């Protein structure tokens, strides 16, 4: 009469290698996209996003506004995305999913804010009012540069990194885990049994109140 063995069938080495290789590729790609996207957003925020002219004392002066003056949302969310990109390796299971979702949402929010900033004129109007001393002053000849769209593209890279983390994050390693490759905790090592015939071991046994000459 046959019986069913409770011993799990070991996973083939080729299958394990394929899973590990896929996880490493997705990990490297997510890190590259996330870091590159955040860098692009942060650099773009320091560039000129809008330009125009303001009337001052019968003449005109040029005014301009960088990304930080137009909107600070992309910069803030890029920093959040970088923090989430690092934190995704410090958590496991549900925590990793939540952090990966935060990473994706940071990218999506930064992209939307940068896109909306490409047509914003409030920052230039405020600069024109400051220069002219007239709170009702408005900018003439308003033009926008391509930098808001560059920032939006960088934010989309952060979004893609978050989507990779959501899809493949379960196969990525975590920092500080005392686990073997199989995921099982390491068994504690047993101390080597002392030799009852060695003098130092005899003394240690006597100190513990044991009789080293007594056989179990």
TrEMBL record:
Transmembrane segments: 26-49, 69-91, 98-118, 146-166
Native species: Streptomyces omiyaensis
Keyword Membrane: yes
Xref: InterPro entries: Trp_biosyn_TM_oprn/chp, Trp_synth-assoc_CHP
Low complexity bias (residue ranges): 184-194
Biased composition (Basic and acidic residues): 195-216
Protein name: TIGR02234 family membrane protein
Pfam families, alphabetized: Trp_oprn_chp (PF09534)
Lineage per the UniProt record: Bacteria, Bacillati, Actinomycetota, Actinomycetes, Kitasatosporales
UniProt keyword list: Membrane, Transmembrane, Transmembrane helix
Region of interest (Disordered), residue spans: 179-216
């Amino acid at each position: 009469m046959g019986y069913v063995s409770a011993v799990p069938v070991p996973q083939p080495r080729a299958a394990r290698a394929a899973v590990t290789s896929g996880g490493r590729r997705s990990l490297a790609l997510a890190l590259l996209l996330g870091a590159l996207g955040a860098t692009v957003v942060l650099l773009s925020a320091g560039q000129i996003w809008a330009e125009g002219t303001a009337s001052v004392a019968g003449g005109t002066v040029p005014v301009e506004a960088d990304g930080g003056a137009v909107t600070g949302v992309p910069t803030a969310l890029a920093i959040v995305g970088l923090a989430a990109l690092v934190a995704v390796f410090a958590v496991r299971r549900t925590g990793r999913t939540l952090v990966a979702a935060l990473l994706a949402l940071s990218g999506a929010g930064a992209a939307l804010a940068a896109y909306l900033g490409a047509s914003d004129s409030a920052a230039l109007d405020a600069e024109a009012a400051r220069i002219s001393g007239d709170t009702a002053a408005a900018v003439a000849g308003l033009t926008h540069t391509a930098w808001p769209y560059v920032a939006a593209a960088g934010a989309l890279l952060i979004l893609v990194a978050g989507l990779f983390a959501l899809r493949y994050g379960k196969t990525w390693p975590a920092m500080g885990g005392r686990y073997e490759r199989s995921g099982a905790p390491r068994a504690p090592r047993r101390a080597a049994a002392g030799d009852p015939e060695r003098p130092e071991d005899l003394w240690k046994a006597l100190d513990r109140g044991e009789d080293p000459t007594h056989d179990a």
